[in-house]
Write a structure and sequence with these properties.
Length: 298
Amino acid sequence: MKIEINDLNVVYRNGNHAVKNINLLIEEGMFGLLGPNGAGKSTLMKVLVALMKPSSGDVLINGESIRKNRKKLRSYLGYLPQDFRFFTRFRTWEFLDYAGSLAGIRNRKERINMVDELLDRVGLLEVRDRKANKLSGGMKRRLGIAQALIGNPRIIVVDEPTTGLDPDERIRFRNILSDLSQNDVTIILSTHIVGDISSTCQKMALLNRGEMIFSGSPSELTGAAEGHVFNLSLTQEQYDEIKDRLHIISSMPSEMGWDAQVVADESPGFDGKIIEPNLEHAYVYYMEHKTKGLSLKI
Ligand SMILES: Nc1ncnc2c1ncn2[C@@H]1O[C@H](COP(=O)(O)OP(=O)(O)OP(=O)(O)O)[C@@H](O)[C@H]1O
Ligand SMILES: [Mg+2]
């Protein structure tokens, strides 16, 4: 299903302009929404799942406005909120069973089958009888995604699902999402972890202070930083001198003093060698540029 975002603005009651004039087309597959804290990711997602009304502009899902058909559109949507919690008294399977009945699955037998099928899909079948609040952080997040999958939604919106997970759980979670995206569904994943995007998403957007400063593929973003990432071999004195002046992405002690990777508009001197940018470099470069008010062409 296609999602078309047109001139979207969200202004909170206190005057906070959280989403500014966003235009974006999201198609089937995995779409990554990347941005720092407070960029407006969660606000945008709440509008997409029709939990919040935009102040102006519109979102069309398969051509239909979310302003008009909220109830019907919600049946296409699965949503895992950033602050997802569940009632403590439930066992893992009971929680999903409850979520299923809320979603309108009346037939008990059908619901039980669905619960076990979903638990299996997210690797929680073995802990189905454990109290949901006794699950590990990663398991809770997987229960969260299972809950979002009830009713086979065509659009799945997950808000920062990997924050705080260990690498194994992060990979596991990402793989669940990638598997889902094989079935012609649209998955929108928000994160501030660059690695989540580079390893899963074909398309992405970069949000900063409510504005969309980039949309395209991860490789297009990386391309924008081409020629702007340098490796410098520095003495301790040189390192001390550039430390506050240049944007160092990483540094390691070396025989000479330091090996540092630096993102900059132009060569910073010191015989800097241009290196191939990765998405993290590109993210830093792009954010820096935009906050300095410079324009970038892609
Ligand atoms: N209920 C609210 N009332 C007023 N302002 C809000 C409200 N919720 C969020 N904001 C503000 O709107 C802006 C965007 O917030 P939002 O939560 O959408 O960002 P985010 O990208 O999801 O951040 P994070 O990565 O921290 O989750 C922020 O400046 C935030 O302080
Ligand atoms: Mg958020």
